[in-house]
Amino acid sequence: MKILVTNDDGIYSPGLACLAKVASKFGDVIVMAPDVEQSSMGQAITSGRPISYKTSPIQFEGMEAYRVNGTPADCVALGTYLFENIDLVVSGVNIGSNLGNSAWHSGTLSAARQAVLFGIRGIAFSVSVGETETDFDALSPYVGDAFKEVVDKDEQELLNINFPRNPNGEITWTSLSVRHYDGKMVANKDPMGRQHYWFTVVPIEAEDEDSDRWAIKHEKTSITPLILDLTDKEYLSKMKS
Ligand code: MN
């Protein structure tokens, strides 16, 4: 199996190194990630200028690795163009969870979604953060377990996997927690006295049972199967009849 590994935190992220290492146990890995952080870029593509890639400034043991001056979706587009027969695109491990409504703006998940647009399986991996730095050596076995859980389930093209801060080892399949938008605006003043605003990702409503947010709250690893079709089929058939 040929696996393309990318992320939105950039080529230097320890989460990328962790995922690449785990992926290398399942297939041949090529790393292609943004040269700078691209979090919350969603599925943006660079269309106003050309993009290019260079060899990664840091080593990934036994793997080809490159940095791209573009977005996560650009990395997937370029990687699948340059390297033929990619069977799977994995993205992450993002430093910060991508639950519920984050699906809309997550660069991590969007990279996996971009792969699905090209007809390739895409799996996103993210971990909740706490007060201290994430210990990716400690997380690594849980990433391996999740990988094992899904790698043969190739009937499902797009998956969003989240790890809690301290996984209890349980893996649970969940739904996307679609609630009122998990963001609020915080108004403040800069040192010059000018008004500014900070958009924060604080959930507005409580989590729904068996959703991804619920799983993380209960320290379980969450796997959410997703589809690309946003059509409201119920409403469509009502309008057509
Ligand atoms: Mn990120």
Question: Topology, pairings included?
Answer:
Layout: E1 2-6, H1 14-23, E2 28-34, E3 53-55, E4 64-68, H2 72-82, E5 88-95, H3 107-117, E6 121-127, H4 136-151, E7 158-163, E8 171-173, E9 184-189, E10 195-200, H5 212-217, E11 221-226, H6 233-240
Parallel strand pairs: 1-2, 1-5, 2-4, 5-6, 6-7, 8-11
Antiparallel strand pairs: 3-4, 7-11, 9-10
Can you walk through the features of this model?
Helix 1 (14-23) crosses helix 4 (136-151) and helix 2 (72-82) packs parallel to helix 3. By secondary structure, the chain is an alpha/beta fold. It is 26% helix and 26% strand. It has helices spanning 14-23, 72-82, 107-117, 136-151, 212-217, 233-240; strands at residues 2-6, 28-34, 53-55, 64-68, 88-95, 121-127, 158-163, 171-173, 184-189, 195-200, 221-226. The chain has a single domain, classed as 3-Layer(aba) Sandwich (Stationary-phase Survival Protein Sure Homolog, Chain: A), CATH 3.40.1210.10. The strands form two sheets. It has a nine-stranded mixed β-sheet with strand order 3-4-2-1-5-6-7-11-8, with helices on both faces. It starts with a strand and ends with a helix. Strand 6 (121-127), helix 4 and strand 7 form a beta-alpha-beta unit. Manganese (II) ion binds at residues 8-9, 39, 94, 96, 107-108.
